[in-house]
C-alpha cells in the first residue's frame, strides 16, 4: 500500500474552519450592523453567532478558541482578518518546527520527509491565501458561486498536510509523531470546517439571515449544468493537434529550441498568465520533470502517447518517499497534456514508484499513456480530467484525493509480485 495512499480523510488544516466560520459570522454581523443598536448588542450577537456555529462541530472548544478575539468586534472585515491570522499562525508554527526538526534528523529518509513536509505545508498556506482572496470582498449574493472553489482548495490544503504526515512512513525516531502533535489543533479546526462546508447553506439559514433562503435557492445547480471543464480546456480537446501553435519545441536531435523538457520549462516567463505550449517531439526523455506551483497554463503536446515518452525510475525501496518518486509532477493549475506518455520504469520489486503525480487544479490529460507498477498515477489533489488515456499498473495504480474524472480511458492490470493483489 502506498504511504500516501493509506491516508484517512482526517482533516488537519485549520484553514478551513477558521475561514468558513469567519465568513458566516461576518455575514451575521453585517446584517446586525444595518439594523443598528448598541455596541453591547453587537457583541452579544457576535457571541451568540459563534456559539451557534460551534455547537454543530465535533471540536467545540477548538472552534470557540479560534474565534475568541473575534467576539469583541462587529466589523466583518476585522473578523476575517482575525480568522486569517489565526490560521496562518498555526501553519507557520508547524513550518518553523519542521526546520528545527530537520536539523536534528539523522536518518536520510526522515530528513527527506521533513523537506517534503515543509513544501506541502507551504502549499497549504497558498491554498489559504487564495481562499481568503476569494472571500475578501465579501458578497452574500455570490456565496454559492464560489463555494465549489473553496471546497476544492480547502480539500487541497487538507490533502497537502496529510501527505506531509504520510511522508514519515518507515522513518526512524519519533519525528513523525512530533509533527502529528504539532498539527493536532489544526486538525480539530479542519474537522469542524469540513462539516460546515457540506452544510454551509443550512448553517446560514439557521442563523436566519434575511433574504438568504432566496439567494441560496437562486444559485442551486440544475441537472445538466456545465460544472466541469473551463473554456480553454474544451477548446484544447476539440482542436486538431496540427493547428496548435507551440511557444517552444523540444527535440532530442537538436531540431527544436531545446533538447530537454526541463530546459524548456526554465524559459517560461515569470508570472505567465497565457497558455504556454511546449511541443515535445518523438523520443524517450529520461528526466524527472516538475511543473511548479504558480507556473500555470502549461501545455505538453507530444507526437503520440507511445512516440513521446518521459521516463524515470525513482522509487520507495531506494529511499525516496512516494510523493517524490514521480517521474513527472504537475503542480501548476490549468495544466494540459496531449499525445504523450509518462513512465516509471523502476519495476514491481521497487514497490511505490509513481509515473505521474498531479497536484494541480483543472488539469487535463488527453490521449496519454501512463505506465508503471505500484502507484502509477497519483491523482493527488484538486480537479482533474482524463480522456482517452491508458493507465497500467498493479497495486493502487490509480490513487489520491483529487476529484478526478476518467472518460473513455483504458485501465490495464499488470502482473504483480507473488502474494500481491491489484486494486485501484
Automatic annotation (TrEMBL):
Main location: secreted
Location of this chain's protein in the cell: Secreted
Any one GO CC term of the record: extracellular region
Domain annotation Pectinesterase inhibitor: ranges: 45-196
GO terms for MF: enzyme inhibitor activity; pectinesterase activity
Keyword Protein biosynthesis: no
Name of the featured protein: Pectinesterase
Amino acid at each position: 500500500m502506498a504511504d500516501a495512499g493509506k491516508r484517512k480523510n482526517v482533516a488537519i488544516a485549520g484553514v478551513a474552519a477558521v475561514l468558513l466560520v469567519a465568513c458566516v459570522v461576518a455575514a451575521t454581523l453585517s446584517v446586525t450592523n444595518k439594523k443598528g443598536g448598541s455596541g453591547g448588542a453587537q457583541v452579544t450577537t457576535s457571541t451568540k453567532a459563534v456559539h451557534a456555529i460551534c455547537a454543530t462541530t465535533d471540536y467545540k472548544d477548538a472552534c470557540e478558541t479560534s474565534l475568541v478575539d473575534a467576539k469583541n468586534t462587529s466589523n466583518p472585515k476585522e473578523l476575517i482578518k482575525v480568522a486569517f491570522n489565526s490560521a496562518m499562525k498555526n501553519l507557520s508554527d508547524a513550518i518553523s518546527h519542521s526546520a528545527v526538526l530537520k536539523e536534528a534528523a539523522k536518518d536520510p529518509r526522515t530528513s527527506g520527509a521533513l523537506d517534503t513536509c515543509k513544501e506541502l505545508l507551504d502549499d497549504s498556506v497558498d491554498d489559504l491565501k487564495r481562499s481568503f482572496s476569494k472571500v475578501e470582498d465579501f458578497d452574500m449574493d455570490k456565496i454559492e458561486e464560489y463555494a465549489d472553489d473553496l471546497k476544492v482548495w480547502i480539500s487541497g490544503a487538507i490533502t497537502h498536510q496529510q501527505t506531509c504526515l504520510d511522508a514519515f512512513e518507515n522513518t526512524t525516531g519519533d519525528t513523525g509523531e512530533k509533527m502529528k502533535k504539532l498539527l493536532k489543533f489544526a486538525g480539530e479546526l479542519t474537522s469542524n470546517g469540513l462539516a460546515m462546508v457540506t452544510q454551509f447553506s443550512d448553517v446560514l439559514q439557521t442563523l436566519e439571515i434575511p433574504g438568504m433562503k432566496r439567494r441560496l435557492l437562486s444559485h442551486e445547480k440544475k441537472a445538466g449544468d456545465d460544472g466541469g471543464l473551463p473554456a480553454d480546456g474544451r477548446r484544447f480537446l476539440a482542436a486538431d493537434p496540427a493547428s496548435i501553435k507551440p511557444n517552444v519545441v523540444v527535440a532530442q536531435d537538436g531540431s527544436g529550441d531545446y533538447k530537454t523538457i526541463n530546459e524548456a520549462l526554465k524559459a517560461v516567463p515569470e508570472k505567465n498568465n497565457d497558455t504556454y505550449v511546449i511541443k515535445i517531439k518523438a523520443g524517450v526523455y529520461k528526466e524527472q520533470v516538475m511543473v511548479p506551483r504558480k507556473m500555470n497554463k502549461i501545455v505538453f503536446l507530444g507526437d503520440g502517447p507511445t512516440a513521446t515518452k518521459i521516463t524515470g525510475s525513482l522509487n520507495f525501496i531506494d529511499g525516496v518517499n512516494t510523493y517524490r518518486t514521480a517521474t513527472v509532477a504537475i503542480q501548476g493549475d490549468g495544466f494540459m497534456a496531449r499525445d504523450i506518455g509518462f513512465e516509471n520504469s523502476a519495476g514491481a520489486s521497487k514497490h511505490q514508484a509513481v509515473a505521474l503525480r498531479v497536484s494541480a487544479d483543472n488539469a487535463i490529460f488527453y490521449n496519454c499513456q501512463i505506465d508503471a507498477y505500484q502507484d502509477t498515477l497519483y491523482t493527488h489533489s484538486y480537479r482533474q480530467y482524463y480522456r482517452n488515456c491508458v493507465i497500467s499498473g498493479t497495486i493502487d495504480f490509480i490513487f489520491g484525493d483529487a476529484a478526478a474524472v476518467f472518460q473513455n480511458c483504458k485501465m490495464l492490470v499488470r502482473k504483480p509480485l507473488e502474494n500481491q493483489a491489484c486494486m485501484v
